[in-house]
Amino acid sequence: MSIDWIPRLRGHADLVKRLVEEVPQALDRPGLSLDHAKRLRAVIQKGQRDFNEVLELMNEQDVDETYRNAADNLAKIWSHFVDAAADKIQMLEDEVSAETDHEDEQTGTG
Questions:
Q1: Residue pLDDT, tens place only, 36-74
Q2: Under 8 Å CB-to-CB from 47, ≥6 apart: which residues?
Q3: How close are the terminal C-alpha atoms of the chain, in Å?
Q4: CA-angle at 70, arms to 65 and 71, nearest 5°
Q5: How many helices (H) and strands (E) would you count in the chain?
Q6: Is residue 104's pLDDT more than 70?
């Protein structure tokens, strides 16, 4: 049976190396809109789903512990990315809600 998960695991490792710097920068960008944050989360979730497919392939085979440890670490990082994006979205939604409430108070509609 082909071990096609190894190149994909390596690809995710390379991708995560870049994203460790890029995701926090993107989420901390001044003026990040709620829409952009949601799109970023969707891209991250897509990467996490793809990585979960790699994990499924690995689980179907007898995998060396080194690969298993690497995969576990990558899974934690993907999870952290998703959580960080969700936290940013929540913060932006709270800001939008607070602005709307403030506008309603000023116009007397709230």
A1: 999 999 999 999 999 999 999 999 999 999 999 999 999
A2: 12, 15, 19, 78, 81
A3: 64
A4: 95
A5: 3, 0
A6: no
Query: Look-up: residue for tokens 């490792």?
Result: 13
**Count of other CB atoms within 10 angstroms of residue 73:** 12
Closest by Cα among 38, 41, 37, 31 to 81: 41
User: In 3-state terms, what secondary structure has residue 39?
Assistant: helix
Angle at 60 between CA 58 and CA 63, to 5 degrees: 45
More confident residue, 102 or 86: 86
DSSP 89: H
